[in-house]
Design brief:
It is a single chain. This protein is an all-alpha fold. It is 59% helix and 0% strand. It has 2 domains: 10-84, no CATH class; 126-245, no CATH class. α5 packs antiparallel against α6, α10 packs parallel to α12 and α11 (174-186) runs antiparallel to α12 (191-200).
């Protein structure tokens, strides 16, 4: 096996890494100038500018999202998402409009193998992933959007909803499970959404979700495998005091 080469400081800079010194250099810079630096030709400057943007108000959110759409550098994407994740419900409302529309990391077809994670996997969509790290007060906004959006958006929203509910037991309630199951009924012919629902229901241990997962668990293929995995996660969580008490802390 080839030994993986360690990235040099220059490599990291080119990928947008901003160290404490880079960030401190822009401390106190007025917000309007930070917006200009957010589109700098230098990736690490874009990252440092993003980290200094505060408060995360309407104009800032729009500027950050506009750059996120265009951004190619990993560490700059991380910086932008870290700042957006500190926003409030108004921030989340704007972000939701971009769900499933940035990058191409989303699932567009069924996975070939079941997830090997022993918990709920992070959403692959960059916006869904960032929403899942925000304060739990945004959760109702995700449920509201679920009722009126495209199939692609639903697929990504289910990942965020499932992730948040899995790590915040107080949100894994019957009314939310009903919305997810209703989503399944409306899109029962869309295998991707069916699979995402089966994964999402691993966060919900009530009888109706368990019964539904049991029905899917007898199937062959990835959906049946995911249903069996979801049932196993539910059983493990019910028997694990750590998960019973777990409340996810946003970064």
């Amino acid at each position: 096996m080839k030994k993986r080469l360690k990235s040099t400081p220059d490599d990291l800079k080119n990928r947008g890494f901003a160290d404490a010194h880079d960030i401190a250099n822009l401390a106190g810079t007025v917000q309007t100038e930070l917006y200009n630096l957010l589109v700098s030709e230098t990736a690490s400057v874009r990252s440092a500018a993003a980290y200094n943007i505060f408060p995360v108000e309407a104009v800032a959110v729009q500027k950050l999202l506009e750059q996120l759409v265009l951004e190619k550098c990993l560490y700059t994407k991380i910086a932008i998402c870290a700042v957006l994740s500190k926003g409030n419900a108004d921030t989340a409302k704007e972000m939701i409009q971009y769900i499933g529309k940035i990058g191409n990391n989303q699932h567009n077809k069924l996975a070939k193998t079941v997830s090997k994670k022993k918990s709920f996997p992070l959403p692959r969509d960059i916006v869904a992933r960032t929403l899942s790290k925000m304060h739990v007060s945004i959760f109702p906004l995700l449920l509201e959007k679920l009722e009126n959006c495209t199939a692609k958006e639903i697929s990504e929203l289910l990942d965020a909803i499932g992730f948040i509910a899995f790590y915040n037991n107080q949100l894994a309630i019957e009314s939310t499970a009903d919305k997810i199951i209703d989503c399944l009924c409306k899109h029962k012919d869309d295998d991707l959404i069916v699979w995402k629902v089966v994964l999402c229901l691993s966060a919900f241990s009530m009888d109706k979700s368990v019964k539904l997962l049991e029905e899917f668990s007898v199937q062959d293929g990835i959906i049946g495998e995911e249903a069996r995995r979801s049932l196993l996660l539910i059983k493990q969580r019910e028997n694990n005091d750590y998960y019973k008490k777990l409340i996810f802390q946003p970064f």
